[in-house]
Amino acid sequence: MREGPRTATTPTEGPTEGPTEGPVVWHVTGARPNFPKAAPVLRALAARGIAQRLVHTGQHYDDNMSRVFFEQLALPEPDINLGVGSGSHAVQTGTIMARLEELWVAAPPALVVVYGDVNSTVAAAMVTSKLGIPLAHVEAGLRSFDRTMPEEVNRLVTDRLSDLLLATSVDAVAHLAREGVDPDAVHLVGNPMIDTLLAHRGELGPHRLDGLGPLPSAYAVATLHRPGNVDRDEDLAKVVAALHATADQVPLVLPVHPRSRPGLSRTGLFEHAGVHAVDPLGYLEFLSLVDGSALVVTDSGGIQEETTVLGVPCLTLRPNTERPVTITDGTNRLVTAEGLAGVVGEVLAAGRPDDWPVPPLWDGLAGERIARVVTRFLG
Ligand code: UD1
After folding, report:
1. Domain residue spans of the chain
2. pTM for this structure?
3. Which residue, by CA, sits nearest to atom 11 of ligand 1?
4. One fold for both 24-191+362-378 and 201-350?
């Protein structure tokens, strides 16, 4: 077992795969949600014979937060692992910046592609900007309009510095237009995370859950890791009361993010007999769990999108979402801790929908569209 958060280690170099001639596109990933977004883009660019390098910043480093995704999504071994580990926002972002700068001064990329809204994303964006390297942002334009979320700050800064803004939804395009971004730089490409989900959908199923021991036949899934829910005990107490009231109605399976475990344990979540806590799951295991569930309670961004495509009711335990398209064209609903148990009762009574909308262009072809935009940009 690990003894605590990993701090920065020495960067390591891996094999360089694919063509080495011509302009080189560098991809920066680092945290769990980056991996399913990057996989289809890497594949589509490789199919076009474009030389690529993959950086893993090391923001997430536990095997079940990182390595399992590389294996299951057939991602290439990263060319470089920066080994930054955990730390405060400034330490983590600053360490990534210093290491990327050194790397890219020595080997300047033709284009850097970043994903989502994590600290690895914004760190890479700032380095490219100062070195005069073009930047593409996959998942540009999402806005929660809540700057208490570190991700919102990361999104705003990354978009401001990007040359190619690759948007997953129409509302994201509208936000960028309102912020004065050159419309020629903005491309509505769909959602590469959904490419990955659709590509692996046939591999999901109860057989993936054998390692979890006997599961109840009907269950709900919960995931929580946002600072707004899990960092302060007074917020946590409300969340735990809401999850206990949910577990009174339906067994709750909870893959526990490492940052949430101490607080959830301290505030008594695991003491309810209906709460089944498990370690973080691999990609295929987690989506199999979700696919077989009656509903999901979450504060994640990506899970709002995945439940929308799987047709699983999603109750998002947050005051806002940067993904409103999952409410208007999906299965998502925002809930408060106080309101959760009541909504769970309604959703259980209604059952899973037979028919539900899915946002435009969430069709498995986003990686291809991104590759087309990138190829044109490289000229
Ligand atoms: C990060 C992202 C968040 C994303 C989430 C997905 C930022 C600001 N936040 O949050 O947007 O939704 O990833 O999981 O980038 N830890 C481990 N093992 C690991 C990684 C983390 O034990 O492999 C623990 C450490 O105690 C660490 C804490 O989790 O301090 C937080 O990790 P960090 O990467 O800072 O943020 P996340 O909460 O994972």
Report:
1. 24-191+362-378, 201-350
2. 0.96
3. 118
4. yes
